[in-house]
UniProtKB/TrEMBL annotation:
One GO BP annotation of this record: rRNA processing
Protein name (database record): KRR1 small subunit processome component
InterPro entries found in the cross-reference section: KH_dom (IPR004087), KH_dom_type_1_sf (IPR036612), KRR1-like_KH1 (IPR041174), KRR1-like_KH1_euk (IPR048550), KRR1-like_KH2 (IPR048548), KRR1-like_KH2_euk (IPR048549), rRNA_assembly_KRR1 (IPR024166)
Nucleus listed as a keyword: yes
One annotated GO molecular function: RNA binding
Ranges where the record places region Disordered: 1-36, 256-407
Amino acid sequence: MAPNKKSQDQAEASTSSAPNEDAEPVNKNKRFRKEKPWDTDDVNHWEIPKITREDHPLPFAEESSFATLFPKYREKYLKEVWGPVTRALEKHGIACTLDLVEGSMTVRTTRKTFDPYILFKARDLIKLLSRSVPFPQAVRVLQDDVTSDVIKIGGLVRNKERFVKRRQRIIGPNGSTLKAIELLTGCYVLVQGNTVSAMGGYKGLKEVRRIIVDCMKNIHPIYHIKELMIKRELAKDPKLANESWDRFLPKFKKRNVKSKKPSAEAGATENANTIPLGNGTSSKPALTAEQEGEKKEKDKKKKKVYTPFPPPQQPSKIDLQIESGEYFLKPREKKERIEAEREKRQESKQREREKEREKSFIAPKEDDGEGQLSKKAKKRKEKESGPDGDAEDKKKDKKKRKREDKE
């Protein structure tokens, strides 16, 4: 009986281990996952629950606080608005103080505070107020479905002029680009100084940050605006809810137009219009086959000899100072050496200037009698020495012979 029982157990094990063809394929990551009682479709896990005073009837054990500084130009506005700010925070059991001497705003919990997260919301409120966000907009951050993000753009671009130009791109002509970003993301956006303040939902804030950071990296916001407009239209179609939208979205290629260096042919044809037209023959003599071959060899780039070793390290400024001994000099001695070098340069320049001044006092060289000749005599001499001088002599000889024959 024992061996039969053993064989039966083995058969049962084999049947249990064999995969069930009718069963649905299970994801590898969820093989050992047990069903939870709260994993039902009627429960919305993304819903933010509202916390009331009944949830936390007792006060917090410790007091917590946050403080932030504000610029001097915001002092006047904050003094006017601080009454409504205090009343808005008192509803949630948060106390706030405005220190005009130190230039800071502080928020802290009290014994009436019942929401543990409201202190972080109050911190965001004073941050937005310090970044020039008006109070009617900033107070919305106390709502559960509204969050804020302060994007620092000051360190993304080195050049000041380039930074101002790219920051202006975010705003656009008459604020049109900023308005488009606000409408498509559902967020409030304010550009102020070296920061961009944004308020809205988490999804919208993520898009706003991407647009602004890319704009400071020289990617125009219009590309992201086009993409968001297409996504908004695709979201209306329920058939495309479970499909990839990559085929509908535009793919922009980065175009960096590199400046071309002038080639030899371009240089030859550059001043072609200045050459006078002739009988079609060039003034330059034609090169022989040997000369052309030599020219081609010169034009070819010389190939560098391959070496497996890296190039030798160049001496640094400190190395050169150690070699010359300047590194070990005292500051006073260094100063004296610099002054001595400067005086040397000044002396050499002074000598050059004196030589140039002395040139004006040197008498010009006199001509050997030619300088005293009149202009007419010079012209006659030039004519006689010219190519037609021999022809004139022959004419004179003929005239003399004719006179002699007549006589």
